Amino acid sequence: MFRYGMLGFIPLAVALEVFHAPAVWVFVVSALALLPLAGWMGQATEELAARAGSTVGGLLNATFGNAAELIIATVALLAGKIEIVKASITGSILSNLLLVLGLSVFLGGLRYLRQNFNAHAAGLSASLLTLTLIAFMLPTFFDLAERNFFNVPDPTLPDELFSLATAGVLILIYLANVYFTLRTHKDLVSGLDEAHPEEHPATWSVPVAVGVLAAATVGVAVMAEFLVGSLEAATEVLGLSEFFVGIILIPLVGNAAEHFAAVVFAMKNKMDLAVQIAVGSSLQIALLVAPILVLVGYFAGRPMDLVFHNPLELAALAASILATNAVVRDGESNWLEGFLLLGVYALLGFAFFFTPR
Amino acid sequence: MFRYGMLGFIPLAVALEVFHAPAVWVFVVSALALLPLAGWMGQATEELAARAGSTVGGLLNATFGNAAELIIATVALLAGKIEIVKASITGSILSNLLLVLGLSVFLGGLRYLRQNFNAHAAGLSASLLTLTLIAFMLPTFFDLAERNFFNVPDPTLPDELFSLATAGVLILIYLANVYFTLRTHKDLVSGLDEAHPEEHPATWSVPVAVGVLAAATVGVAVMAEFLVGSLEAATEVLGLSEFFVGIILIPLVGNAAEHFAAVVFAMKNKMDLAVQIAVGSSLQIALLVAPILVLVGYFAGRPMDLVFHNPLELAALAASILATNAVVRDGESNWLEGFLLLGVYALLGFAFFFTPR
Amino acid sequence: MFRYGMLGFIPLAVALEVFHAPAVWVFVVSALALLPLAGWMGQATEELAARAGSTVGGLLNATFGNAAELIIATVALLAGKIEIVKASITGSILSNLLLVLGLSVFLGGLRYLRQNFNAHAAGLSASLLTLTLIAFMLPTFFDLAERNFFNVPDPTLPDELFSLATAGVLILIYLANVYFTLRTHKDLVSGLDEAHPEEHPATWSVPVAVGVLAAATVGVAVMAEFLVGSLEAATEVLGLSEFFVGIILIPLVGNAAEHFAAVVFAMKNKMDLAVQIAVGSSLQIALLVAPILVLVGYFAGRPMDLVFHNPLELAALAASILATNAVVRDGESNWLEGFLLLGVYALLGFAFFFTPR
């Protein structure tokens, strides 16, 4: 019901844009319009997945799970807002790991003294997160070495080449992980697949699902244009830094659906699913969305490297991955561990809030 | 017996101070006088705790366990010796993690082939240490970002604001941990509470304990004044750097009681208690003493941020937490692991010893 | 058979050197000649070890296991090629951890769904790797602190002193680990010792083994002279950076025997041995070869500190140790984990390849 009502934001956003309303209004309303659209995209994907059987379904989920984020970031990238795109990648990873997972573990832990989840799957996720941290750290250290050690005055080209190579490796790891999860080691993540259909049985026919997916995709693309177009003016009026908007605010909106779903699962003591949504979504951003953006940027003449010039951004990524690994690795959780994750999120939120505009 | 004898250092320190003896003498004698005083404070707290029942008693221990350190640091802070205060916080954490825990694990391991401790409690401690590392890393990266990325010429104010916010988050985490340990998950740390009374049954009446606590607190405060007042001149004469004194020497004195107690427990194969003393004390410094000092400094007009300008200091903190996590997380120890911790302590000791005066 | 044929490279290298052939030829042929020589040294050591009983044998293996690497590095050090020596230490550690272990885990995992190894031994290895990371990080942070915080214009002397102290601590840890493994906690690494004799029963008489060891040692030393002498000219002609050669190419040649042996064990599902070869060899480089080189350099008037001026080198070390710890700590492996290690190796390979010449 609620989600149908929110669709009203779409025509409102169009009207505001057409009549040149103040940027803040366009920004806020198009952000709100993205909430139901991202929800529809996700639901349509899941409906198709539920009909497709576990392997193809898993593949669909693995590929289109963060399609809305990918579209928004692509629009921003093509508009040349490269720093915002990088910030929203970082932000998406850390809001999933700290806020979505933190809330799930905390709220689930208030209800259940101790919650368990598949330690093997969690261990593998932790290893993949460690790889993510390494892959996102190296381009920055590469840039640092070029500048300060080899005294290369402008390492733009080698930075781009190395980031392209990194993107290639990340996509290979992503594909390997999909093959591992859906083929060779299905059993490792069992319990997840079975639980999904119970929660979301297929109710839409295939044409309906495809139609909804197509319409929502177009909607997301249009709203993303409005959002990106109004971003700069809006942040200035609101007195917020681009980093705070990219790292904290946009992912808050973009991951609203994940938040809700993960918390609901956690409160039903289905921690495997909650962890899977939060960590899986982060990994999808890191191993698929980010490298696709690097490739798209390269071929569209808007090259984006993976160098983080703001040291706080890399520290935030490292902090969120270290904290998640500490909490997740043993396959057990309690409310205090959720509180810790939320504490790290609060620390990062303050850091980016106090950052200059 | 021995401790009664050491009380003689108190009048001696007063005499030296009154007759303007050389600073080195005042420094050494007031440091020695602090040993029995810190011991009395600890014992009086435990006597009160033993009478108060496990929850209030645990709360008392959790709050006043490092009261002597807090008083010394507050005196130094109010005297404007901010770098020494920060150094002594770092030093207290790493001497507890590497020297106290290292000696306990090593000496205990010489007697028992393999020693076990509660893996759940150890895992939680490791997570809290990881949070500590993150919280102590972020202000420095924030400062770095301000200076080098945002080109803020003087980030004193934002550094202070962010450090205040960090202090707030740390205190919340501390309170959450106390609530977790004493209320919702008492069972997780069981074995600890029960073992304590056996070791230290209440023998003092409440008025005696309160009286000893009050007298020792006054004594600590006075000796701390002498110690801080003679510090600068003494380190110069001794040819030691302020960092070496703050990070290695002062915590060696301040944690003498912890060393002794933890090693004794380890050699009785009560590793849970030994780990609890070493790691618990570090966490209390990080999550309670450090943030209180930030708040006290702010309201007393001596603002102290949590930025570490000496890169070695942050590296030392990271090293001690990484090493402790590696050793502690599996709930098992042997002498080689203790030797490793002592090895890391030796490395850090050399590093700060070779540092310029 | 094959290895006998490769001995032909030795006279060929001598001929090329004597007739002043182009440096690239000398470089390539002497590198190829080192392969069988390092193999003979290793085999002769193992033959002696097999005859000597498990303790002395273990000691022999622990001491001479990386003798070929030590000789090559010493020759380079005495020739003043200090940066190449440091790079080859880093490279040897990361090629063992990422390439040797990665290939073993990957190829073993293609054959067996899940492979297990002694989690206690793996946990201890992970702790020793963490110590290695700390010990190799601190000199660089020490140098950074000297330069940027204490404003020491030329910290060469304190850097050397601290590196000497670090070398001393590392050798102590090495000896402690040998004592732990061969004496106090033999049982912890059981399964390894027993498996070795089965694989390599002693077939040579002691005089033959000693003779082969002596001859191969001389051969390695001569070929190392040729290799080091032709290195600079060869890398220039090949258009490769010194870092790429030192970190990627030389260890590829130097560890060829380890690669082969570890992969063979992994494919026979003897993961304990595969992990032991890869991780044990890294630890031997870090805890024995590197500190010996620091001491040799100091007494030979070619002081080598352990400061890494290229930030990428330290990042590479951190990345390889973090990734290995993530994969190894739980005592279980699958092909995806091997793929991850190989992915990290590929990332580092690209990074050093794109580095300026």
Describe the SSE topology.
3 copies of one chain form a homotrimer.
Chain A: H1 2-6, H2 9-18, H3 23-52, H4 54-64, H5 67-78, H6 82-111, E1 115-116, H7 119-149, H8 156-184, H9 192-199, H10 206-238, H11 242-254, H12 256-267, H13 271-299, H14 311-328, E2 332-333, H15 335-353
Antiparallel strand pairs in A: 1-2
Helix pairs in contact in A: 2-3, 3-4, 3-10, 5-6, 5-10, 5-13, 6-11, 6-12, 6-13, 6-14, 6-15, 7-8, 7-13, 7-14, 8-13, 12-13, 14-15
Explain the overall architecture:
Three copies of one chain form a homotrimer. With 357 residues, chain A is mainly alpha-helical. In chain A, 81% of the residues lie in helices and 1% in strands. Chain A has one domain: Up-down Bundle (A middle domain of Talin 1), CATH 1.20.1420.30. Chain A has 15 helices and two strands. At the B-C interface, helix 14 and helix 15 of B face helix 7 and helix 8 of C. Chains A, B, C: Ca(+)/H(+) antiporter that extrudes calcium in exchange for external protons. Chains A, B, C: This is Ca(2+)/H(+) antiporter.
